[in-house]
Write a structure and sequence with these properties.
The protein has a six-stranded parallel sheet with strand order 3-2-1-4-5-6. The protein contains ten helices and six strands. It has two domains: 139 residues, HAD superfamily/HAD-like (Rossmann fold); 64 residues, Putative phosphatase, domain 2 (DNA polymerase, domain 1), CATH 1.10.150. It has 224 residues and is of the alpha/beta class. Helix 9 links the parallel strand 5 and strand 6. The two termini are 23 Å apart. Helix 1 crosses helix 4 and helix 3 crosses helix 4. InterPro entries: HAD-like_hydrolase_sf, HAD-like_sf, HAD-SF_hydro_IA, HAD_2, HAD_sf, PGP-like_dom2. It holds the Pfam family HAD_2. One of its GO terms (molecular function) is phosphoglycolate phosphatase activity. One of its GO terms (biological process) is DNA repair. One of its GO terms (cellular component) is cytosol.
Length: 224
């Protein structure tokens, strides 16, 4: 295995447990258009895609105009929830300690997410994570996952080769994106897609906790 230098993370379902918010806002977006809200299981399947693309997949037909309206309803519901002081979108256990460990090792870190850049900055600010990441790639600057554009741009910004880069995510879209970009695809099993989905999409490792990340990256000793 090549020496890893750049580690890129998905956000929703990988670092942050935001599933309840995404499900509720998606259902609100459909209801605002007078449509039957999709079940939570179906919504989980589209987490990771760019918002309009995700709404179109849930519609089950090509209707970009309606999908865009549903996405606007999603955004409106999201802003209401974002201003709710009781909103809970916690980090998954061990996320901060893992980022601190990789930072001490001198690894470059980045984000590649289906969220908008505004949503990225909001989430990183909420959890005080912004200082860990050198490159941020969001949906409003790229085609939807699994297109490799976000990873290609992250590598260009940091000057790191594909064989020295890993993508960490919870969905098959993350794994397919990683394969398309020629980087190491590593899945996590606490997010929105099942282990079987991640393996089928090309994951070379699937983590059950963050302690398993360092050996998956070829790092065997704790940083001090």
């Amino acid at each position: 295995m090549a020496h890893m230098r750049l580690i890129i993370f998905d956000l929703d379902g990988t670092l942050v447990d935001s599933q309840a918010t995404i499900v509720a806002c998606t259902r609100s977006g459909f209801a605002a258009e007078g449509l039957e809200p999709p079940p939570a299981q179906a919504i989980r399947r589209i987490i990771g895609l760019s918002l309009v693309k995700a709404m179109e997949v849930l519609l089950g037909r090509s209707d970009p105009v309606l999908a865009a309206r549903i996405a606007e309803g999603y955004r409106a519901a999201f802003q209401i929830r974002r201003n709710d002081p009781t909103l809970q979108e916690p980090l998954f256990p061990g996320s901060r300690a893992m980022l601190e460990d990789l930072s001490r090792r001198g690894l470059i870190m980045g984000v590649a997410t289906g969220k908008s850049m505004r949503g990225v900055h909001s989430m990183l600010t909420t959890h005080d994570l912004g200082g860990f990441f050198t490159t941020l790639q969001a949906a409003d600057g790229h085609p939807s996952k699994p297109h490799p554009s976000m990873l290609i741009e992250a590598m260009a910004e940091t000057g790191v080769a594909p064989e020295q880069t890993a993508m960490i995510g919870d969905t098959s879209y993350d794994m397919e994106m990683a394969k398309a970009a020629g980087v190491r695809p590593i899945g996590v099993d606490w997010g929105n897609h099942d282990r079987s989905d991640l393996l089928q999409a090309g994951a070379v490792s699937i983590l059950s906790n963050w302690q398993e990340l360092t050996p998956a990256l070829g790092l065997h000793m704790a940083a001090t």
